[in-house]
Every structure is written in structure tokens, then in C-alpha cells.
Amino acid sequence: MTILISIISFLVAIAILVGIHEFGHFWVARKLGIKIIRFAIGFGKPIWTYKSKDKDATEYVLAAIPMGGYVKMLDEREGDVKEEEKHRAFNTQPVWKRFLVVLAGPMFNFFFAIAAFAAIQMMGVESIKPYLGNIQQGSVAAQAGFQDRDLVTAINDVETNSMQQVRLTLLNEYLKNPNLNIQVTTDSGSQTIRKLDLSETLLLSDEKDYFSKTGMGFWQPPHTTIINSILPDKPADKAGLKANDEVVSIDGNVVSSTQYFSEYIKARPDKPLNITVKRNGSTQTLTMTPKSTEIEGEQRVLIGVGLARKFDEEAVKELFFIKEAPFLEAMKTGVVETWDMSIMTLKVMGRLITGEASLKNISGPITIANYAGKSALIGFSAFLTLLAIVSLSLGVLNLLPIPMLDGGHLLYYVIELVKGSPVSERVEAVGMRIGMSVVGLLMVVALYNDIGRLIS
Questions:
Q1: Residues 286 and 393 occupy one common structural domain
Q2: Which tens digits make up the pLDDT trace of 346-384?
Q3: Measured between alpha carbons, how far is 277 from 283 in angstroms, rounded to an integer?
Q4: Domain stop point among 196, 217, 238
Q5: Catalytic residues
Q6: What is the full DSSP assignment across 334-390?
Q7: Inter-residue contact 215 to 139 (CB < 8 Å)
């Protein structure tokens, strides 16, 4: 069922984002007087078609496989054009018109991201206050003096009021300069600045969580640990653990958090553990032996469970809050978040090229589908957030000066403006082959990473 939800959510997400991108090309071309022959979302067999009743008789198509789309415009390079319609052909337009039509696709992706982020702010989204906790001994965070229940209020003078903001701001500022000034309010109520030196810490050297590499974690008030899901034929399943079990203790030690439970197990591979759980009002103790497994060259201790946290009412009040904003403030936030995340995406791409970031950070359709399914199950705001992030990523990717992408066409138009004539067909043909090779290579890497994550 989860797989089905992921597939449906992914297809819906791609159809929406492709539709927005192609509508950008379509809308601007129509406004500039260019004739549109077909506006299609998807490939393969059409499942719905409609032909407009106006003189252009534009055909609108929704095809069976929503993995792309296109806007077909009148163009002399693709067939004969009547003399009286040549002024409406795309190829006969001045450079600035062609430039705007091509630019409109990525820009509409950015506009959607801004609108989505703004809508989320106006609806109000449950956020977590940025309390730090579980500081790892000997880590750069410990050396900088971070302590449990430090409340992060700013990073390099950029205000932070939620844990998501802390994570994004930390990465964004790290990409500018690895030496960070982090302003915190300590548990005693005093304000101080802790200097975090990440110059020797490669946050993007692999696909592992970059935030945990700093040695910082999230503070969690005491809570009940719930077994959320069980994988078949894994140690937890063989021991008799069930979904919805409430973990009381392990080897007689009270389990105060999911992290304590996880770390206790990780430290004792291949050793029998006595786990006491509450189930249907009764208490019982089960014996489980976690297994040490090598995954991608690392030993990991796995038992095959998903964990959930159950906080009491006072903890919820202390840790969680609803973050919302009026229209103008929400729009401003949407613009800032879209800009910051777009610049951050470009910087990460730059580090991929220089080798400072691992290619394992590249994700493909399988990973996106997985996140789409999870976000759809969480709720509308989470799904809309995913759409916004993927939309701005598509906008950035399409603006790269790679032939075959919109950015490649824009590069040709800039060259045309400079030299006074279009680039030759031979240059376009060579560029197309290069573009297809680059995009194809990226897809291979992305799918390889996706399959690796799926297996692990």
C-alpha cells in the first residue's frame, strides 16, 4: 500500500511541476503572439485531448505517462508554414521574445515555489523549537562548548526560530564560510555566541545527514517509545515484537527516549537483550538478538523496526509550535526561502563538480517517489513543501547552460545577441549530443544512488 501511495504521489507531483513549467512557456508565448499548436503533459498514448475553438485550434493533451511534457509552437524548422502565419512562428521572432519564452518555464517553477512556501506560512505549519541536544563527545560541537537545551536563535546573524531553519541556515552559511557564529540561549537563560569551526568537517562528503556530522543533535524531552512498524523476518519480528508495542525498558533500564533505545541496541550487536513492552494493557518481556550487518562498507546494527515518539501534553507545549504569517510576511518568506535554497542548490552543484561534495548526494525518481509518498501520508503541508523544493530544483537545473536544457537555449540566444546571428546548426547538433550525454550521465548516477538506497 505504501509503495502504491509513493507511486501515485510521485506521478501527481511530476504532473503538477511539469505542467507548471510547460505552462510558463505556453503562457508567455501566447502573450507574445506566437502560435501554439499543442500543449501536452506526459508522453505515450493520450488519455484526454481537447482542441480549442479559436482560430489557432490549439490541441491540449494529457498523456498516459506524466514524466514530462512539451509545448509545440509554429516553427519553420519543423514543417511548412503558411506565408500569412510566418510572423507568428517561433523561429522568426526577435531574440528577446525567444529568450523570454524559454526563460518562462524555469521562472514559473520559481514562482510556484514562492507561492507554495507562502501558502504553507499562511496556513500555519507545526514546527519544532531549535533546542540542541545529544552533543557528541569529542565532536566539533562539543569543542565549541555546545550543551543540551541550547536554543539556537541565530547563525551568522540570520535569525532561526525552528529546527528546520537551523538545519537549512547552517548548511547555507557553511557553504559561504565554514566558520560559523551561532547565537544561543542557554538552559539558564543567558545568551552567548558559540564559534563552530567546520573547516575540517566535510558535511557533504557522503549522503549521511550533514547536521549530525557537526556533533549536534535535537533535544528531546522524555517521551514514550512506540514500535511503529515491524519488518518481517528481522530480529524484532522473530522476537515477537508487534506494531504499537510501548517500550518500557531494556535489560532492566528504563527507556526514556527513542535515541536511548537505539543507541543501547547499537552498542550491543549480536547480544541477547531483554525488552519489556506494554501491549493491550499487559506487560511482557521478550528476548531479542540484534544483528550486525555490513552495509556499504560499514557495520550497522539492525533489528527491523520503525520507532515513533509519544510526548506528554506539557512536552508538546514546550517543544512544538505553530508557525504562521499574514499574507505580505508569508510572501516575503516565500521569496527569501526560494532564493536561499536556489543559491544553496547551485553551491552544492559547484562542490559536486570540484569533488568537495559526494555524487551520492544526487537523488533520482525513486528517492523523490519515496519522499513524495511519505510527505503525502504526513499531510498537505508536507506534500506542498516537497513540491516547492523539487520545483525550485527543476528551475535551477533547467537554467544551467547545458545544451538540451532551457539554459542551453538561453546561452545560444546570448551568443546570438553578441555576434549578431544565430549559432550554426552544426554547433546546435554538437551541443545537443553533449547535453544528452551530460543529462544521461546524471540520470545514471541518480538511479544508481536510488537503487543503492533502496537496497540498504
A1: no
A2: 988 888 888 888 778 777 776 777 767 777 767 788 889
A3: 6
A4: 217
A5: 22
A6: HHHHHHHHHHHHHHHHHHHHHTSS-GGG---HHHHHHHHHHHHHH-HHHHHHHHHHH
A7: yes
